[in-house]
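User: Before I run my own analysis I want an independent prediction to cross-check against. Here's the chain; please return only the structure tokens and, at the end, one sentence I can use as a sanity check.
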Amino acid sequence: MVQVNMSSKEITLKVVYYGPALSGKTTNLRQLHAMMDPEARSKMLTLDTREDRTLYFDFLPVSFATVGGFTVKMKLFTVPGQVMHKSTRKVVLAGADAVAFVADSQRASASANAYSWRDMEANLRANGIDFEALPKVVQFNKRDFPEVKPLSEIKEQWGEIPTFPAIAVRGEGVLETFRELMSALYQSLDTRHAFSAQFQVGESEFLKGVLAHFAGDHG
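Assistant: Structure tokens:
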């Protein structure tokens, strides 16, 4: 979970993009990386198999300084969606502060989405993370594909969990999903750690700091 180093005045947060294989998790991180100011972004690390699918994780550090003199470092990861990589997903989820679940909008992918959601819940609980309290949003990607679930049906099924439509390969819905997750993350931090009082940063400053290096809305 959130790591605070008082001597170096650094706050480190971990965000994980989770979901079934080929749902668009890596695409989301690549798009976020591409949207960032080249002078501000750090190198994106990827470890791929010979099949060119993410095997371990992608890693996209995002950092900004607060008024109180602290540097907030945001580390973004993705997990491999393939069923055989269950142990790797569990390791990557350890210490997660927030999760973006990337689902495939196609009706044929409903069972894969459901399996991955249950897998995520089990892995979070195994890591000692409160699944219900963890900030999370759901992105329904691949809205440009045929036979996708209507958004009205999606919202009805997912209830209070924020859901966002996306076409990640075009960058559509990527930043909106990320921003909503950051808002949920801040509210969780403030509730659990009195973030605003302790570090002198409100939600608007937090969001502004996180999103400062991203160029525009991109859809």
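Sanity check: The first helix runs from residue 25 to 35.
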